[in-house]
Amino acid sequence: MTALRLDGVGVAYHGRPVVHDVSVEVEEGGWLAIVGPNGAGKSTLLKAVVGLVAHDGSITVHDAPTGTLTRRQRATLVGYAAQSPVLPDGLTVTDYALLGRTPHLSPLGRESTADLDIVRETLDRLDLGALAGRPLGTLSGGERQRAVLARVLTTRTRVLLLDEPTSGLDIGHAQALLERLDKLRTEDGITVVTTLHDLTFAAQYADTLLLLDGGNVVVSGTARDVLTTERLRTHYAAEAEVLTTTGGCPVVAPVRPI
């Protein structure tokens, strides 16, 4: 079953096109990694899916055309975390995670016992239970990223859009976060769409890579199909070799020009 489908999606800012005619499908339980150089349109494409920017073309989430949905309805179908989300220092981890329940509340409603149970369960699954009462401003980088993931997960959507979820994390914390996300995807059948600058991580975790450059789709497919030395040179202006791990996964290794 298709969880997310984009047909001819384009976005323009002040009349200037920045994303052009993007079409892609993501199967339920799949992981799509949108990759490309800075300014390629990756974040803008995610914003189009969640309704933060106007777009041409059509976007469908689990057979529901998003153009017919209110923002609140869309928020119950698609969970989204921006690349640099606002994390108010005064909020605790629990308070912040509760924000994910907002689309399910009436305009003047307050969270119920069931909402609090969902938050507690989510924090426990992300090993944040012991930090539930901690202010966001006291968290480490890895803890803050997990708190962001908790807020998205408490929405209980079936599709997650995460813009650079490993931004600012060292290799160990980035790997740990992606492992947690992949485990949740496997256990709950959640569909994941991420933007990722780290091409090796994208190759290791995503089923499909979509390479954007200048707002255009260059190619989509498996990591082995997408990540080639020539494409890295053409679209990233990078000299790199594409190696293979003992497990058969591509690894992008920068090489100093001779």
Automatic annotation (TrEMBL):
Cited Gene3D superfamilies: P-loop containing nucleotide triphosphate hydrolases
ABC transporter domain boundaries: 4-239
Record-linked InterPro entries: AAA+_ATPase, ABC_transporter-like_ATP-bd, ABC_transporter-like_CS, P-loop_NTPase
Keyword ATP-binding on entry: yes
SUPFAM superfamilies found in the cross-reference section: P-loop containing nucleoside triphosphate hydrolases (SSF52540)
CDD domains to which the protein is assigned, alphabetical: ABC_Iron-Siderophores_B12_Hemin
Annotated keywords: ATP-binding, Nucleotide-binding, Transport
Any one Gene Ontology molecular-function term assigned to this protein's record: ATP binding
PANTHER family: ABC TRANSPORTER ATP-BINDING PROTEIN (PTHR42794:SF2), HEMIN IMPORT ATP-BINDING PROTEIN HMUV (PTHR42794)
Protein name per UniProt: ABC-type cobalamin/Fe3+-siderophore transport system, ATPase component
Organism: Saccharomonospora xinjiangensis XJ-54
Lineage: Bacteria, Bacillati, Actinomycetota, Actinomycetes, Pseudonocardiales
